[in-house]
Amino acid sequence: MNAFLSLRDEDLAAFTEERSTAVRERVEGSLRSAEHIGSIIELFGPLMADTLSVMGGGNPLLEDEHYLTLQEGDDNDPYGAPPRGPNR
Amino acid sequence: MPSGTPLKGCDATMEDMDIVRAYRERKHARCFQLLYERYAGRIYSKAMTMLHRADEAEDATQEIFTRVFLNLHKFEGQSKFSTWVYSITYNLCIDKIRKDRRNRDLFAEEVADPPEPVDEVPDETLLTMQLDELRYVLGELSEGERTLLLMKYKDGVKIKAMAHLLGKKESAVKMQLKRTKEKAKRIHDRQFARLAS
Q1: Closest chain A residue to B59 measured between Cα atoms?
Q2: pLDDT given for residue A78 in this prediction
Q3: Which of A10, A28, A34, A11 is nearest to B58 (CA)?
Q4: Partner-chain residue, chosen from A14, A28, A35, that has the shortest CB–CB distance to B3
């Protein structure tokens, strides 16, 4: 084996003995973080994009869910008296 | 991804591409582990070729491996997996070198003051050096010259690929290699021929 290949083998041995475990753990950590960030973007990305688009004067792409207004709801006195609480 | 997950889904007899496919489908820790074991050391060695410092090579190995796995969905087997991985390795290291404005001679297209033409130093001259002799010679070369010799003789990178990676013409790489080999021989002879006599 020539001296260049000996240098390569020294690098491989040094990595395996001293650095491999630490590097693997750091790579795993980075991939977990990236996966987590990816999930968040997947979940909220379209909503954020739509919000920005509407703020810029565009039309919403996502259909709003239909919510009952106060008048349409069952509770006609939303700010009325609080519940009486337990009987004494 | 966590280590400690039961080892199944991939095994050591599988080809790289099959492991890549299995990882993409099932994200098994064993697939990750197999690719890591096959390539991490080699990536580190190539990073050492380019960066010459163990801590920087370690950080680069981490960055390269993370990049490889985050982009695994883009690898379709158009080249060998090893080729793809090493291409990412060299490109990332070259980016780092350029950013740090190191090894400028590595990227220089022309040598300002070309030496007298000399006969090509045969590869054997370098390949028959003892390990401690080679270490001495490499230590006397500039970082760029060292990188060039290590890419060629330690990592086995072809001239065409070196030219592509460094953004140079093949003829320029050949000329630079020729001069570096000649310089290496001179350093070697000056130091060790004197000791031998």
Answers
A1: A23
A2: 60
A3: A11
A4: A28
Query: pLDDT tens-digit profile of B39-56?
Result: 999 999 999 999 999 999
pLDDT at A54: 83
Same domain membership, residue B74 and residue B121: no
For residue B44, the chain A residues in CB contact (below 8 A) are 11-12, 15, 19, 23
Domain that holds residue B76: 16-99
Domain-embedded: residue B119: yes
CB contact under 8 A, A5 and B154: yes
Tokens of A36: 């987590």
| pLDDT 10s digits, B8-19 | 578 889 999 999
Give the orientation angle of helix B29-51 with respect to helix B16-26, to 10 degrees.
120
Residues of chain A contacting B5 with CB distance shorter than 8 Å: none
CB-based burial label for B133 (10 Å; 0-12, 13-18, 19+): middle
- ipTM of this complex prediction, to 2 decimal places: 0.83
Residues B117 and B189 in one domain: yes
Are B91 and B132 members of one domain? no
Is the same domain home to B147 and B187? Answer: yes
Counting Cβ atoms within 10 Å, is residue B159 exposed (0-12), middle (13-18) or buried (19+)? middle
Tell whether B126 and B190 lie within a shared domain.
yes
Contact criterion met (CB < 8 Å) for B1 and A6? no
Q: Are residues B110 and B173 in the same domain?
A: yes
Contact (CB<8Å) B2/A12: no
Q: What is the CATH number of the domain that holds B168?
A: 1.10.10
Count of domains observed in chain B: 2
Q: Six-digit token pair at A54? A: 């509407």
